[in-house]
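Q: Here's a chain of 246 amino acids. Please give me its 3D structure as tokens.
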Amino acid sequence: MPSFRVVGPGRAGMSLVAALAAAGWESIGLLGRNDDPTAAAHGVDLLVLATPDAAIREVATSVRPVPTTVVVHLSGATGLDALDPHVLRASLHPLVSMPDAEVGAQRLVGAWFAVAGERRAMGLVRRLVDDLDGRSFPVASGDRAVYHAAAVVASNHLVALMGQVARLADAVGVPLDAYLDLAAGSLDNVRGVGPSAALTGPAARGDVKTVEAHLVALPADERDTYRALAAEARRLAGRREPGAGT
């Protein structure tokens, strides 16, 4: 089985170590901030830079290149140029949320991965995905920012939205779990029939009075988010803004 080393003992790095080890890959050490990464690419088939995006380039340049070692980063937004001067370079961005290493390792099995890389590096990257029973798709360099923005909306912004739900639920004494079940059902509907067909609610059906009543009732600091999302619902439903001319 292939051997690998990870630089960056954070949640993503530790999750990948656990997942690959469980899949039979040989883990050859884990390097942290205080370790010298100069020889990190030596003696392994794959070197994974699981560092924050801002540190990828600096760490990559500090690693002595080995022409037979594939070097990958886990960033969704960073291009391959950050891995200069390594020849066999690639990126592997798992589309999963990893709150800790144990849960992250479980979620990496069967996950979606955005991949890119030099042709000779991609064989090992695809084997990694296959060994985790995952699925992959390519993302071109010019598309990375939009791809990653969509990932942020799907994950981070969704969590932020649930934070607003939690605040409003708490204000009226309703358990958050009741709304989480509603949200989970909506995501199931999107998976089943797509966003447009899954959309329901007052903004989607053009119920302006209900939307206005919500805005009156909401605290002032909660209204902008509601307005923005109501506008997105109208857009998805193909409806005009209230009061818009023909």
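Q: Can you summarize the key feature?
A: The radius of gyration is 22 Å.
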